[in-house]
Write a structure and sequence with these properties.
The protein is an alpha/beta fold. The chain has 9 helices and 9 strands. It has a 9-stranded mixed β-sheet with strand order 1-2-3-5-4-6-7-8-9, sandwiched between helices. Helix 2 packs across helix 4. It starts with 29 loop residues before the first strand and ends with a helix.
Amino acid sequence: MKKTRFGALRALALAVLAAVVTTTANFGFAQENSDVLQVRDIVYKKVGDREIKLNLFLPTNEKGETIKGLPLAIWLDSGCWYSGEPGDGGLWRQTDALKRGFAVASVSHRPINEAPFPAPMEDVRAAVRFLRKHASDYGYDPNRFVVSGASSGGHLSLTLGISDEKTPFNVGDNLDVSGEVQCVVDFFGPADFEVAFERFGDECIDCIYIANGVSRDALKKDHPDHAKLMANAKKYSPITYVDEKFAPTIILQGNDDNIVPLSQSALMYETLKVAQVRSQFIVSDGGVHDPWSLGSKIFLTREIYEFIKW
């Protein structure tokens, strides 16, 4: 594993993630096994009749009681800013976060064909506020939240690293608690849409234009929506909001990623370093648009949890 030079931007996208969940009552508990308690289909936000949900996975002791005071690892179920039902915790479960002393949340959001930007950013921020508001109900530590996701999930994770003071996405319920997380684990998330549109707009696939609520034709400078597209590009780029209060962030990407280019992660990392934010950038030789192409489970687990330091 080593750093490599910036890649050329080819596209911004990820295939839609599938998530299968069972249904239980809101705030109801269902036993998964002897050492994990599932809390599924928690409604963290409503938009009209639309319910947006998350799942929780809580370690238990030998008596079957939830272990109190654990940090919370949040996985964002997102692909190309589409999301279905909440999943099972993604990479956190796959790297044994529960056994390492973390509670885990799996968070869905409204997909962009239902509600374009900034809806996904506002939804996941609302999920963080909900989870913090109800920390005492479930027993995890409200002051130690780490978030992760891949591609669009990485982008949304980066937006959760923005401080409450700077973010435009902290709207809705539970505004009496913070929408910030204390650490971000970003797998190849797009970070600077301005660069994408200005230099490589023709190569960006359709979901990025759908997310911005415009057609691909808006890339043309004489199009009536061009100014809107470029204004949105700045507004919805996590890199726009980096300052010294941004959450500590580790970025992981492969140098053969042909969907989100290495340059996006490199720009974000350099911006974090300039702001003196604790950060790390891991580039995998030969890694593609898949977290498991970036290294073994042993390698990824070691790097991620050593960076988190909890």
